[in-house]
Design brief:
By secondary structure, the protein is an alpha/beta fold. The chain is built from seven helices and eight strands; from the N terminus they run H-H-E-H-E-H-E-E-H-E-H-H-E-E-E. Strands 3-2-1-4-5-8-6-7 form an eight-stranded mixed beta sheet. Helix 5 links the parallel strand 4 and strand 5. The relative contact order is 0.14. The mean pLDDT is 96.
Length: 203
């Protein structure tokens, strides 16, 4: 769960010029993948940046941090729900789209979270999971920093998580969001791509 200090760090990052570039690329990717979906769930929405940026999409944000959701509600009038990724407070088939951005790898039980996403999605509902790529220069530089949020990662192999997601979704994966020296690049190079993205539709 994010602390008040974590939230302040995220706000500083995303309000920096570099952070804005990163967020813009991620939002553009999500928009391309989820555009046209009627009801979308953001699991681990944090302070609601994607809800704010993707204003044309009908997104419900969920997070386990009350403080993060308070910040999210200040940013946008979208719906936000306090809850646990491993026990989503929604009925079966409530959504036709869902996404997570650097969330699954920080959960103790990411499999339960994936199960829950599958449960609340309609048949053929789409799921997009953005996960940190530990092979990237960006990750390797951050993990060395004392106090880095990256050090809290519980699952460092996105390919392992992709295998589990593939049990419930017709999933494919790709490297995305090249980062080098505060510059954002268009590349699928596993050494430069900060993220590994798994996307697919509910089986």
């Amino acid at each position: 769960m994010m602390t008040k200090r974590d939230i302040e760090k995220f706000l500083r990052f995303y309000e920096s010029e570099f952070g804005k570039k990163v967020l813009s690329k991620e939002a553009e990717y999500l928009n391309n993948e989820l555009r046209g979906r009627r009801k979308i769930l953001d699991v681990g929405c944090g302070v609601g940046y994607f809800e704010e940026m993707l204003s044309d999409l009908n997104i419900t944000g969920l997070d386990s941090s009350k403080e993060a959701l308070e910040e999210a509600r200040r940013r946008t009038g979208k719906r936000f729900v306090l809850g646990d990724a491993g026990n989503l407070p929604f009925p079966d088939r409530s959504f036709d789209g869902a996404f997570t951005v650097t969330t699954l790898e920080f959960l103790e039980d990411y499999e339960k979270a994936v199960d829950e996403v599958a449960r609340v999605l309609e048949p053929s509902g789409k799921f997009v999971a953005m996960m940190l790529n530990p092979e990237s220069e960006y990750f390797k530089s951050h993990i060395l920093r004392p106090g880095s949020y990256f050090r809290r990662i519980k699952h460092a192999d996105p390919k392992e998580m992709e295998k589990y997601i593939s049990k419930l979704f017709t999933a494919t994966g790709e490297y995305f969001l090249g980062i080098r020296d505060q510059e954002v690049l268009d590349t699928h190079d596993r050494n430069l791509a900060a993220l590994y993205v798994v996307k697919g539709t509910r089986v």
